[in-house]
């Protein structure tokens, strides 16, 4: 988390209060939201203690922040995705895949 970014610059000019941690989904698809807040004053932003059960609405209210943009991302462990693709291919013989292609034409 980066705070105190001057409006005419980028995040490298701000103050890092929480180090970025890349997504590490353990199983299934995880939904991530990246939110850009406008800091309404030069008050010190109190960094969250835990990532678990983080409430962005409460965080914004407690720190006098207004959301101005958001990006939504889905991510999944690569091994799980490869396993799903492999399992799907294993369910079909070459003959049945060829028959399916003929029907599509």
Automatic annotation (TrEMBL):
Per the record, the domain of life is: Eukaryota
**InterPro entries (UniProt xref):** PEBP-like_sf, PEBP_euk
Q: Identify this protein by name.
A: Protein FLOWERING LOCUS T
Write down the species.
Vigna unguiculata
